[in-house]
C-alpha cells in the first residue's frame, strides 16, 4: 500500500527548535545556525482587518513562503521523518515494498512537502506508519490533513483488508484521478485516456486567450512559454501515444493561425515552417519529435 500525506500549512507549522536541532545534527557551524535562527525568528506580522492593519506581532513558529532559503530549511527539517522510518526498518518494524526481488526496499518518497510512505497492506504496518507520523508531528510541528490524504492499494490486496485499513487510519482510498507530482497514480488500459488531462489543460489555457486578439508574435510567445510547458514534464518521463501528440500539435497550430484551439483556418505557409528552427522558421516545438 502507499499512503499519500497532505500536510496542513506545512511551512507555517515548522517548529523552530526542531529546525535548529536538525541544522546542528547535520554539522552546520554555530555561527551559521545563529544566522538562520535570526532570519526565522526576527519577523513581524500584521493583519489587514477591514482595510486597516492591526498592530504587529511575532509568530512562534513557521518559515516564510517565498523566501529562497525556506525550501532548503524545510527539506532539512523533514529529513527527520527519514531518520524515523530508517530506524523502524532497521528494527524490522516496517517492511516497505520491493519493485522486484533484486531492488532495495522502498519505504518513502519526499519532495518538499509532498510525502508518500510505502508499506505492507496489513493493520500492523498501517498502525506503525501512523505512529511514525504522530512522532514526526510531535517533533516538527507538522500535522497531517486527514481529509486530503489518501491511501492506494495494489490490485492483489483483498477488499476486506482494504476496508479494514481504511477504517483504521481514516484516509480515503485514492481514485484514478489522484496525482503525485503531476503524474497520475493509477493507469488504465489506455495511455491516451490516462494522459487526456494534458489535452484538456491545453484547451482550457488556449480558450482563455482567444478573446485577446493577439498578434502572431504574441501567440508565438504564449505557445513557447506557457502552452508547450504543460506536457513537457510528463513527456520527459513517458513516451506519449503518437495520436495524442498529433492532437497536441494540431491544437498548437490552430491557436497560432486562428487564435482558438477549436477552430481551424487557412495556413498561410507550409505546416513545417512554424516548427522549423528560427533561421527560416518560427521555432515552435513539434511535440511528435519530442
TrEMBL record:
Residue ranges constituting the Reverse transcriptase domain according to the UniProt record: 1-185
List, alphabetically, the Pfam families matched. Answer: RVT_1
List, alphabetically, the InterPro entries matched.
DNA/RNA_pol_sf, RT_dom
**Name of protein:** Reverse transcriptase domain-containing protein
